[in-house]
Design goal:
Tyrosine-type recombinase/integrase; three-stranded antiparallel sheet; alpha+beta; hpI Integrase, Chain A; elongated; Tyrosine_recombinase_XerCD; four-stranded antiparallel sheet; DNA integration
Length: 425
């Protein structure tokens, strides 16, 4: 295909669009993927445009087709464009008349920090981003029952669509998850309104939030924890998969050490899995403790250098000694599974699934998972620390002044914790 060309004074709104580069008037050489495209500004708006890829292969025919498109828009008051697919617009203000499918793509890019505006870059965890996009995709699938999501515009989302999705989520989720689902869609439309400047009202602005009944904190008892550890040695580790005769093993050699680290540090999954020997520090009085980045608080505050502290009591030090403290104390190796050949996320998921698998295998009916080990730790720490518990939890201070000097309040709490905390009493 020959290269498309525009005259010096081309008809207003006509561009050469590359389907590969996904942009107008590119200097690329994807000649076989280039088409004429027209962009028409929507009267009464700041940035909204209607766009259409033209069938014409020469400029004169493209002008005729563009004029016909403008007449169609004017005749229908710019509202009957839903029968065609909205274009996937690039970042440089080329319009925001998105289909619902394209809008979710833009939202995903925004959550990934793919924006030219530094003040708009998001700093959220991968898990939270995936959760937001997952609920948006569910909304897309719900709309797709009656509409073509590649053509259906975000401006056309009505109360009826919200109602249908509300009923779908209500039947599928418990109260807490339901509220998270609806909040994700509200966040999605806030992005379209506040960031993409789409002139619509948020269809998810008002809905009835489900009342969440606060459940009791489930902790793990000493007997339950020992039963789970014992099950690792006694229960058949092979579990059947969905395929024909496929089976996989839930066993890993680091499971026991991993579960014990969770219990004795009270830390979150990524914190435990990423613990290194070099994270161990010694106070002026000789008390050992972990100093690790408080990843959750750093993300919330969008600020680095915020730490949390984990006192190393006798139980935890005995575990570390078994895992090679003397050999590795000056190294930067991971404490858990140092010879790892998989990602940290994979190890986290293995530990979570294995804990549940062996808990069921041990005959424990109580609905507890890996996260309950953190609740158990905090519960027992509270018996010793009382109001100072928060200093050793995920909300600890960032008062690190230099490598071996920390806020005296934190230091006192660490020393007290290292001396007095005993999980299971």
């Amino acid at each position: 295909m020959s290269k498309l060309r525009l005259p010096k004074k081309s008809y207003k709104g006509i561009k050469i669009f590359c389907k590969i580069c996904n942009t107008d008037n590119t200097n690329c050489k994807h000649y076989d993927k280039q088409v004429y495209r027209v962009r028409v500004h929507v009267p009464g708006t700041q940035k909204s445009v209607k766009t259409k890829k033209l069938d014409a292969v020469n400029y004169d025919d493209a002008v005729i087709e563009a004029i016909a498109f403008e007449k169609e828009l004017n005749a229908t008051d710019f509202i009957t464009i839903g029968s065609r697919k909205s274009e996937n617009i690039t970042e440089d203000d080329q319009g925001n008349d998105y289909s619902i499918a394209d809008a979710i793509i833009r939202f995903n890019q925004y959550l990934n920090g793919q924006t030219n505006y530094a003040h708009l870059k998001k700093n959220i965890s991968l898990g939270y981003k995936d959760e937001l996009i997952r609920y948006c995709r569910f909304f897309c699938k719900n709309i797709n029952l009656t509409e073509d999501i590649s053509k259906f515009r975000v401006k056309d989302v009505s109360k009826k669509h919200v109602s249908n999705f509300y009923s779908w989520a209500e039947a599928r989720y418990a109260e807490k998850t339901f509220n998270k689902c609806m909040a994700a869609l509200k966040c999605f439309f806030e992005f379209l309104i506040d960031i993409e400047d789409i002139e619509i009202k948020n269809p998810f602005r008002k809905y009835v939030i489900k009342e969440v009944v606060k459940s009791s904190v489930e902790t793990v008892s000493r007997d339950e924890f020992l039963q789970i550890l014992a099950a690792i040695d006694t229960i058949d580790p092979l579990v059947k998969l969905g395929g024909k005769g496929q089976r996989k093993s839930m066993y890993r050699h680091y499971l026991k050490d991993g579960f014990r680290l969770f219990l004795l540090t009270g830390s979150r999954r990524e914190e435990v899995v990423n613990l290194r020997w070099s994270d161990i520090y010694i106070s002026p009085s000789g008390v050992k403790f972990f100093r690790i980045k408080n990843i959750k608080v750093e993300r919330i505050k969008n600020k680095e250098g915020i730490y949390k502290y984990i006192p190393i009591n006798d139980d935890l030090f005995n575990l570390l000694a078994e895992m090679g403290f003397e050999k590795n104390k000056n190294s930067n190796n991971y404490i858990l599974f140092p010879e790892r050949d998989v990602s940290a996320l994979t190890i986290m998921n293995i530990l979570s699934k294995a804990f549940t698998y062996y808990r069921i295998g041990a005959g424990i009916k109580k609905d507890i998972g890996l996260k309950n080990l953190r609740k158990t730790y905090i519960t027992w720490v509270n018996q010793v620390m009382n109001k100072d518990t928060k200093i050793l939890s995920s909300h600890s201070t960032d008062g690190v002044l230099q490598e071996y000097y920390i806020d005296p309040t934190v230091l006192t709490a660490i020393e007290k914790g290292a001396l007095e905390i005993k999980i299971f009493g």
